[in-house]
Design a protein that fits this description.
The complex is a heterodimer of chains A (about 110) and B (about 280).
Chain A: H1 2-17, H2 29-49, H3 54-78, H4 81-108
Helix pairs in contact in A: 2-3, 2-4, 3-4
Chain B: H1 2-9, H2 14-26, H3 34-112, H4 116-132, E1 137-147, H5 155-158, H6 165-177, E2 182-185, E3 188-189, E4 196-199, E5 202-205, E6 208-210, E7 214-219, H7 224-230, H8 232-244, E8 247-258
The chains are: A mainly alpha (about 110), B alpha+beta (about 280).
């Protein structure tokens, strides 16, 4: 409940103040969004599984976002930035999908 | 494939299961003291902060995406407006130029018609201007119409039914070869210095973009139509009309009026001295 509220407050803050992303960080924004989505979906599933843990969520969220950004940064330096971002999006996308499927099974028992 | 299986089966962070196992093991000696309770409250607050950050991240990304799309749209509209403005400006200048040129011509004619030698010169000028294309002309001839194929349903042949600059060049060449004396493409009179070329998807004649269908008016001898249709180009395009549905028609016209082209300015080329005259032109 508090978690959903915090998320909603964050969205409202982002819409109201729409902070400008520094130009240097803009390429990493989409990948950070996908990594954050993955962490949030994973947390939701863990909550429904009854194994949610605050510390694990905080650490995994920050680490996922940073690692995803780091992979893209490395790729940019090596000239394979777009390929690596595609890879990150594919892997995280699959994870989001299977987590969403697990959440669905929890909610609808189907 | 093991990688894909790994991704799908371990979709959830392994840390959750381990933490749960640890909690289960620790729950045997179930003592929650004040310190642990405070640290739990702190991590719960951290979860809230992290989720808030995630929300800001999502919203920022969405807002940035929409704003970029808006900016692109605005830039595009601004560019279209600039193009329209400049085209209007260019048309206006062209009109002014035409008016001034007409004034110059009439003033010249008045000055020349004063003397017998002037009248002869006037006739010569008119003749030369007709040949050069800087004089509007009329006469009988043909109108060749080229258009992109209407039926583009077959993707294999759709690109073959498109008119390119080289098609117009080929038709113009064939018309000249068949005896045409004056040609205009969509109202742009051709001179010896008119370029027919392609920029992007548009065909430019004398650097003005044209839109299909392309009407090529040619004034020439009475048998221009049959001569043109018998040329290699004529038979080829007739063939393509039947095979690819290319828009191609040749019609005889009793009376065609072709506008004048802009007078080409010669800056660097100078005429050779007349070998017949003993006096070179530039001798002091």
């Amino acid at each position: 409940m508090i978690a959903a509220l915090a998320l909603a407050i964050g969205v409202v803050l982002g819409v109201v103040f729409h902070p400008t992303v520094p130009v240097g960080l803009q390429p990493y924004l989409p990948i950070a969004v996908v990594a954050a989505l993955d962490a949030v979906f994973g947390a939701l599933r863990a909550m429904l599984d009854g194994i949610f843990d605050d510390k694990v969520f905080v650490v995994s969220f920050i680490a996922n976002v940073l690692v995803a950004a780091l992979i893209v940064f490395l790729g940019d330096q090596l000239g394979v930035g777009s390929q690596l971002s595609t890879g990150v999006v594919v892997v995280l996308g699959i994870r989001i999908f299977s987590n969403a499927a697990a959440i669905r099974r929890h909610l609808f028992r189907a | 494939m093991s990688l894909l299986i790994d991704v799908t089966t371990h979709a959830i962070d392994e840390g959750y299961e381990r933490a749960a196992a640890r909690r289960k093991a620790a729950s045997s000696e179930h003592v929650i003291d004040e310190r642990e309770r405070r640290s739990r409250r702190a991590t719960a607050l951290l979860v809230g902060i992290v989720l808030g950050v995630a929300g800001v991240l999502f919203a920022t990304s969405a807002v940035a995406t929409h704003r970029n799309a808006d900016a692109a749209k605005r830039d595009r509209q601004e560019l279209v407006k600039q193009i329209n403005d400049r085209t209007a400006q260019s048309d206006q200048l062209q009109k002014q130029l035409d008016e001034l040129r007409a004034k110059v011509t009439s003033a010249r004619d008045v000055a020349l018609s004063a003397s017998g030698r002037g009248s002869a010169l006037q006739r010569e000028i008119a003749e030369l201007e007709t040949v050069a294309g800087t004089q509007a002309v009329e006469g009988s001839g043909v109108e060749v119409t080229l258009d992109n194929a209407k039926d583009a349903s077959n993707p294999d042949t759709a690109s073959l039914g498109v008119i390119y600059d080289r098609d117009i060049q080929a038709v113009v060449d064939a018309l000249f070869a068949s005896g045409a004396e004056a040609i205009a493409v969509n109202g742009e009179r051709l001179t010896t210095r008119t370029a027919i070329r392609e920029a992007g998807d548009a065909i430019l004649v004398d650097y003005r973009p044209l839109a299909p269908p392309y009407h090529i008016d040619a004034i020439g001898p009475p048998d221009l139509k049959t001569t043109f249709l018998e040329t290699q180009t004529g038979t080829l395009y007739e063939n393509w009309r039947q095979v690819y549905g290319l828009g191609f028609s040749v019609d005889s016209r009793e009376r065609l009026t072709l506008p004048s082209a802009a007078e080409p300015v010669v800056r660097y080329a100078e005429p050779l001295p007349d070998p017949q005259s003993s006096q070179p032109l530039e001798s002091p």
